[in-house]
Amino acid sequence: TTTTTTTTTTTTTGQAMTCLAWGDPHFETFDGQKMNYYGTGEYYLVQSRVLMVQGRYTIDKRWPKASVMTGFAVGGAVMRGHRLVFENNDGVATVLYDGKPILEEFPSSFNDDVISSRFDKTVSSHKRAKNKQGYLFLLPNGVTLAVLQYQSKYIDLTVTSPRFPGKWEGHCGNFNGDKTDDTADAMLGRGAKADVEEGDSMFVTHAPNTKSPDLDISDCDPKARQMAEESCDGLDNQNHYDACVFDVCLTGDPDLEADEEDLEELAEGWWVHRLVDKPVQVKRGTFLGKVQGLEEFELDLTITPTSAQKGWRSILHMTDGPHYKNCCEEGNRIPALWFHSETTRLHVRMSRAGKGNDGCDPREELPLGEPTQVKVRVQGPYLVVFFGTRVVCVSGNYAKKYSPTSRVAVLGSDSWYEPADATIADVMYYKARPLPVGEMIGRVPVVLERGQLLGKITTFEMFKLEFDIKPTGKLDGWSSILHFTKALHRNHGEEGDRIPGIWFIPKTNRLHVRVSRVGKHNDGCDPKPELPQGEVTHVTVKLAGPILTVRFGDKLVCSNNNYKEKDPGRTNVIAYSADPFYDAAKAELSNVIYEEGNDYPHGELVDAPIKLERNHYIGTVDSSANYELSFVLKPESKQPGWRSIIHFTHDMTRNCCNEGERIPGIWFHSKSTRLHVRSSRGGDGNDGCDPKDQLPLNKETKVTVRVTGGKMTVLFGKKSVCETKAGRYKDPFKAEDRVAVYAADPWHAEADAYLSKLEYKAL
């Protein structure tokens, strides 16, 4: 059995929001609803295809009336097949990543292509927080989990995520912007089930569920309630106060005055340096603060230019101590941003080992009077500049990075250049999270934009890529549609740079499809017909066996059978729509699906009877110059025009009459059941032998076509009905690779007949 891996849609919608879980446990959902759950067992906090978070609730013997959250597990598409499990056992935390312990020492970190994690001090001042210790997990696609660990069994947790399309349920709510349907009663009313079944548990061992008891403040002893009210007095709002009173009342522990403010701090405060919040005018020499420098980081800021000025214009400059110089030693610019003279085009400089003034300058200017979110990221071997989610510049020179100190000064702008006429806002500096999981474009059409990064995907030796595209215009140059490449900065020149890449040819809506293979990094297949402008066309690019094919709908428009040695499957492949190396095609894209493909069938081609259909692709065979083809045919009527029965060809886009395009091809003559049998030979791509006898209607006849000994012979049963002169086929055509088999072909209407027992063998 072949397992098919498919990459489909999970485009994010809206801004990231946070779900809070604290106490015994209380929840504030993504939409802001407060709810409680006091049962034990395993439950979904988040249940979606992209992000799956399961929570474990258990009883602490000191507080037997209600459960507390003691652990969680994370899976879903965002984890790319990995699994994260966290459990707190009486203040001793265990963190497992794919079953192996991580973050065992304090402080410590663990990073790979999927997860960036830390075990470190937090900003929480909660009385029972264990030495102010916490855990941070940065996942792809904007997902963050932050954990506050306590001396006893329980934990507080924040889950921050954008909303992904599709089903979304769990104790964190359905994340639809309406908090009224996040209550327990509303969840039950729509049939949402938060319980985790044993077979679906992501924990090491499954904990069975018990029903949540109906507890309220009336269950509290009056004396305990008075103590709770005194302990919780002064909290910032009624919801916090009520939750605190309930927790303290049921547990009898005044230190359990859980407060969402602690969790809200966890969502950002201890891993993000927020340097500027609201917009401020850039002024020369403005000191914004000092930060702990990071080798791998992301710097985010929103820039709104007012005008373009002469000379280099400083926006923001981070420089390492102790001397805090401008240029050009290592550490002087980590990073620094300017506008080029008389433009709003960014000049981005970032030190690396061996070069203090390397960097990457986007081509695009920032629009005057409009805010643009700019992100500068150093991660892996890359320096990447984003405008929003679009990659606008990338350098692959950063395998050896500069190692900063804890004394990095942040200036906005610096004192060495005149300031840019611009405001900056939302300036944040933090450890770079992993690149997003590559998720394709879904049903809603997306207008292509240059440098749109879909994320990382896994590619396959054989694959099928499908998409719907509606061209809306034409550009003078090459224009990008989709591009899968082995590295962020790789466009062209090496194997793996285009696996595949798809563009429009200049001044047309004609596709340029490139798929790297061993020995030829830029091979491919370009269909001749253009896509119709203003209309949606379903395109399929398929690599199976040695053949690359392109189809528009069901119509084969291009093939290349040179793919005997294919590019191997790769991990961490970068997916763009469109890439940052060319202008984006003027088009809308939707329903993009990339999946692992299977080889074409071969061997016995047809056994049981099948009704002939036009463009019915059967599979491939290993061809031979001398061969025997046999089949059983039952005609049911005679039709006008050439009627296709079987067609073997080494070029799936060609019917006739080059050598190799009919090896053999078999038809009925118009308005008859007389066979037209063609098989290529040296010097004649359309030679053959046509029997004079017609096949009987509604009866089965075994037909054999044999090329051997320098001649072609056709037999009905054991009777020879046609034979060429000896020596005519002394040089029969031999394909270099397997050939395609149709029954019937795409170029003619099908014969009205049933075909069975189709076999091919070399002689």
TrEMBL record:
Residues 17-213 form the VWFD domain. Pfam families: VWD. GO terms for cellular component: extracellular matrix; extracellular space. The keyword Acetylation does not apply. Keywords: Disulfide bond, Glycoprotein. It comes from the Eukaryota. This is VWFD domain-containing protein.
